[in-house]
Amino acid sequence: MGARRSHLAAIAGTVVLLVGLCLLIHPVREALSHAAHGDTTALREQLRGTGVGGIVLLYALMLAHAVVIFPAEITNLVAGFTYGIAGGLVICATGWWLSALITYAIGHVAGRPLLTRIAGDERTASAERAIERGGWLALLLMRLLPIVPFSFVGYVAGATRVPFARFAWTTAIGELPLIAIAVILGSRLEHFSATDPLIWATIGGFILLVAISHPVVRRMQRARQRERV
Length: 229
Known about the structure:
It is built from 11 helices and no strands. By secondary structure, the protein is mainly alpha-helical. The chain has one domain (2-228). Helix 1 crosses helix 2 (26-36) and helix 4 (52-64) crosses helix 5 (73-110). The longest helix has 38 residues, at 73-110. It is globular and about 45 Å long. The model has no long low-confidence stretch (mean pLDDT 76).
């Protein structure tokens, strides 16, 4: 009981710290506002010429995403534009991985009540069943599919007591394709060319992930319908 209270206090402290970062530190609050409104131009202008400070700001945004939801692709696009493909990939892969670990910890301590409040009973139960039945492959697929919210996977995995090591490595691998797609497109924002083969390859990769999503969602819907019968 004492250990659980200590864990709960630690998670609560982390959440308070992240919210404090969002509300009290002006650059973070400003960047979060740009991200929440999908304003890539304003966020790029804020980061332009800031050097290491801009990298720190991007990390702050990704960690804050564990408790303040906004389109994750915004930071990836801007990272690619500002720091190039290699730099953007390193920043976003590590930042989102750390953010995912925070969501796992929150889900682990807060449990199912948090999930049902965020997503509702039906969606939560469906995600729980998918992870329990599918094991590591289900976790990997959830990271690969663009239709699944990033933080939600961590909440579910933590609440269902998925082994931490399994969650960590499936996230590290599964997050890369979507991050790479956004970072590469971001790197081409200023000099976009319809004849750039890298752009078309990236768009093709995204279409492939969307195509994979369709049968997976249909299968989950059929499973849900069978359980209702």
